[in-house]
Every structure is written in structure tokens, then in C-alpha cells.
Amino acid sequence: xxxxxxxxxxxxxPHFSSGPCAKRPGWTPxxxxxxxxxxxxxxxxxxxxxxxxxxxxxxxLGIPAGWRLAIVPASDTGAVEMAxxxxxxxxxxxxxxWESFGEGWxxxxxxxxxxxxxxxxxxxxxxxxDLGQVDWNNDVVFTWNGTTSGxxxxxxxxxxxxxxxxxxxxxxxxxxxxxxxxxxxxVVTWSWQKVLGGEAAHGMLALGPRAVARxxxxxxxxxxxxxxxxTSGGKLAEGVxxxxxxxxxxxxxxxxxxxxxxxxxxxxxxxxxxxxSRANLAALEEWVAKSAWAAFLAEDARIRSSTSICLKIKxxxxxxxxxxxxxxxxxxxxxxxxxxxxxxxxxxxxxxxPGLRIWGGSTVEAADIRALTHWLDWAFxxxxxxxxxxx
Length: 391
Hints:
This protein is an alpha/beta fold. The protein is built from nine helices and 14 strands. The chain has two domains: 36-265, Aspartate Aminotransferase, domain 2, CATH 3.40.640.10; 269-390, Aspartate Aminotransferase, domain 1, CATH 3.90.1150.10. It has a seven-stranded mixed β-sheet, with helices on both faces. The longest helix has 25 residues, at 366-390. It is globular.
């Protein structure tokens, strides 16, 4: 292929953003026609639809009996903040961070809650902290999948079955695409707009029995805003976990999520969703293995994400450039592909190393990933020629 000849096959859907993510295959606005718009979310129809989201989510994810699941405001961020502000402070806390969102939770705990007994375990982008150093006498806060680094924990074996503290897991780019060991977790959060491609602003908060016990036995030293309050009179506010949302949800977004959950069921539930996401990663792994210029930011395949797949540029000419010029190369590749309409929003996250980030979640088709790889090579050739001409 010459540097000037674009590939013949284009991805059918160019949406590779890591959030909000691609809608499920075949989605059209017509799926929203049954939305309970103009109705109170507290009316019978509204509560029924909210409960349907909770029930279908529990069933697909295999959430155990005894767990509670709530729809909460402010996406995954709101769900994580509710957990941190409501539960932390009862004992020491280990904070794990290897990318920007984990760093954000560190900031909340260390600089906002100002917990003196917080211990931070960090790693550079592309790597994990030493999970063997985690103290399970403490509460532990971590992301299952680092959305901005493409690095995930390998499994749940590192989480102590006999832990004393709570395992608080931000699973926003993992839920519905990766196995979660519910018996090793106590708090799990995610958002609608990630793996299932739902609309923004709504989060999910799952609480295991140990988390519920913490809420009912511990009162933080700081005041809690209304949207963070999960208890009433010292007892869990059970209505929140039965579709009685703290704030007013978008019934259009609720309808869209019901559609996404029904689609998930139609492709084989969680097992089918995982297969789809792994197929996307496999398509990129096959291409990267042959590429002269692209490599995974997560070099260790055991901790490589199948959803937020992050690439770095290893071409020799790029290594000789300044940091700013390296970033410019990646941006030019992303910009050129967006201009061609074949890949939208694939630039690396602003705090991450220069590179590309391709969403490989379950709503993306592997055929589109394979088509994209040819365009990646084409765009790199254009950008390489431009930079070498300036040298």
C-alpha cells in the first residue's frame, strides 16, 4: 500500500470513543419510543422501568443474592464518591492508582477527605502497583480497569477472601465486558455510557453485605450532601435500591439502558459480551504483533484491557522527537482518521502518555476493528512522511 492510497474498506461504525462509547449494533432513536417521558419517575410506570434496569443488570452480571444495586446521580463518578464519602474513615485505606481516574480518587481521599491513615500505592501508565503490598486490614480503593491506561487487574486472586477492610472497586470500563469476582468485592460501581453504550449522567452502585453493614454501623465525621446519603435513621435506605432514585433521572436514558440490557441478553448475556470484547482485543493484538510502529502501552498481556485499548508509537523516528512532537504525531494520526470519518475520538487521554486509545468494548464489532487497523497504518504513513520531510 502506498502512503497516498487509502484503504478500500472502512469501518461500518467509526465510533471508538472510550466514553461515551459506541451504541449497540443496530441502534436507532426509535428504540426510545416507549420512554416514559413527561411522567414522574415516581409514578408506577417510572418506578417499573427503573426497577427493570436494576433487575436486568443484576441478572446479566450475576450479582449474588443479598447484594443491593442502585441507580445514582453523576455517572460512575457519583457512585464512587458516594462510597468514599459514606464509608471511608472507619479504618485505614489503601489507595491504588495507575492512571488518571485512580489518581482522582487519591486526590479525593488525601486532599478532600484528608484521611491521615491513607496509604497510596502507585504505578506508571502501562503498569500495575505491587498488588502483594496491599494491606487487607485496610479498606482498599481501586479501578478494575484503568480507562486511561489500558491496564486492568489480572483477576481477583490478589483480593483477600478473609479481608477485614472493604474492597471498593470502580469497574466502570470493566462491568459487562470482564468477569468480576463478586465474592472478593464489597462495593462495585459503573456507568451506563461505557460498555453498554448508554447515555451519560447515570451511575450504578452495587453494595455487598459487608458494605451495608459498614453503612449501618459507621457515621463519618464529615457532613454528607443529600445526594450521598444512603441511610436513614441508621438503616440502609432500601428504597434507593428499588428504583427510588435520589435525584430525577432521565427517562429517555432509562429507556435507552433497558434497550442496551435487552441487547446484552440477546448476544448471550455476560459470557457473550465478554467474547465480543475479547475478539476486539484479539484483532488489535494480531495487528500489533506485525506492526513496525505501534505497541501496547500495557506490555504485559495479563493486565491488558480489552475495552480501553491504549497504544504507543514505537517507530524509531518518533523516539528521536521531543515530547511535544511525539504528542503531535499521535494527535495528527487521530485527527487525520477523524477527518476521513473512519475513527472518531481515538486520541489518548490528556493526562496519559502520547498515543492512541481505541475502545474495544462489547458494542464494537471486531470487523470494524480489523478495518481500522489498515487505516491506522495508512494514517501513520502520512504523518511519518510529513515529519521526515521536515527533518
